[in-house]
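Lab meeting, item 3. Inverse folding demo.
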């Protein structure tokens, strides 16, 4: 006998997502909300019931969504729809073989490779540091760019660092604890190290910032350090502004992102002759396949 599920329960998906708070990263929660919201809106516009979704409805939505989105985005939508059906304890249509066939057709139609962020390699880093202003913002940005490059961080990891995560070493370098990352949701953390230049730049920033700020990098308002963490969008803005001030072409500026430090440092490590294990450890990668995508655009000729 089919269990009766009240209609308001079926449609109260926003409230159900609150159960995920604390179990998933905020960025994942934001994506779930956006993806399920897009599905619900499409169903409303096309006279379909979103919960529980039929296989036919879901296939039609995926096909329509693929017109304007890459396959990875369509697959993310599918995962979000699967999750909300599980939370609502409704029959889950996402495992039906017709869904698998639909997604395979979508993926075969769009064979373009995922766009890679332009690598912020050492040459670019030197130029970006040189164009920073001689003021508190310049102190912060130089330290942030240099540290992000040395640690191969994602922008979310960089802005999440606290002062307590930094341990100066006798040789002028730094030992850094990166507590949580996209690939480490359990928060076990990883240890990374920096160059002496980064140690000096961070020392200059901390000397101006003062000892009473918890986040390693913080906003500056009217020349005063504010005791709160930066938004991760600040990292992307700092990189693009530096690229613009360094006189790069507009197309190159557009290709830089908050991920560029991680990409560029990995490419530089490859060119310097480090093996895969060393690069994976430096950047906290768990998969060789993922690392290979970062390295595919490295200017590295094995015959020279």
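The presenter then showed the designed sequence:
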């Amino acid at each position: 006998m089919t269990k009766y599920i009240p209609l308001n329960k079926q449609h109260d998906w926003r409230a159900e997502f609150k159960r995920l708070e604390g179990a998933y990263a905020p960025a994942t929660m934001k994506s779930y909300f956006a993806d399920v919201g897009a599905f619900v809106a499409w169903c409303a516009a096309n006279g379909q019931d979103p919960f529980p979704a039929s296989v036919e409805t879901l296939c039609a939505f995926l096909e329509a969504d693929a017109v304007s989105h890459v396959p990875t985005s369509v697959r993310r939508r599918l995962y979000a729809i699967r999750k909300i059906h599980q939370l609502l304890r409704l029959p889950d249509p996402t495992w039906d073989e017709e869904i698998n066939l639909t997604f395979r057709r979508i993926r075969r139609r769009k064979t373009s490779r995922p766009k890679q962020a332009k690598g912020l390699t050492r040459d670019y880093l030197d130029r970006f540091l040189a164009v920073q202003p001689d003021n508190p913002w310049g102190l912060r940005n130089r330290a942030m760019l240099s540290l992000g490059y040395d640690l191969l961080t994602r922008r979310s990891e960089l802005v999440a660092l606290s002062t307590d995560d930094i341990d100066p070493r006798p040789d002028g370098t730094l030992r850094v604890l990166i507590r949580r990352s996209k690939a480490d949701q359990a928060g076990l953390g990883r240890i990374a190290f920096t160059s002496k230049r980064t140690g000096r730049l961070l020392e200059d920033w901390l000397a101006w910032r003062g000892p009473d700020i918890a986040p390693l990098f913080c906003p500056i308002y009217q020349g005063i350090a504010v005791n709160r963490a930066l938004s991760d969008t600040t990292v992307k803005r700092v990189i693009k502004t530096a690229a613009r001030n360094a006189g790069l072409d507009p197309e190159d500026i557009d290709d830089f992102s908050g991920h560029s430090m991680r990409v560029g440092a990995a490419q530089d490590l490859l060119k310097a002759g480090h093996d895969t294990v060393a690069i994976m450890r430096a950047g906290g990668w768990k998969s060789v396949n993922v690392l290979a995508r970062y390295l595919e655009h490295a200017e590295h000729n094995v015959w020279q």
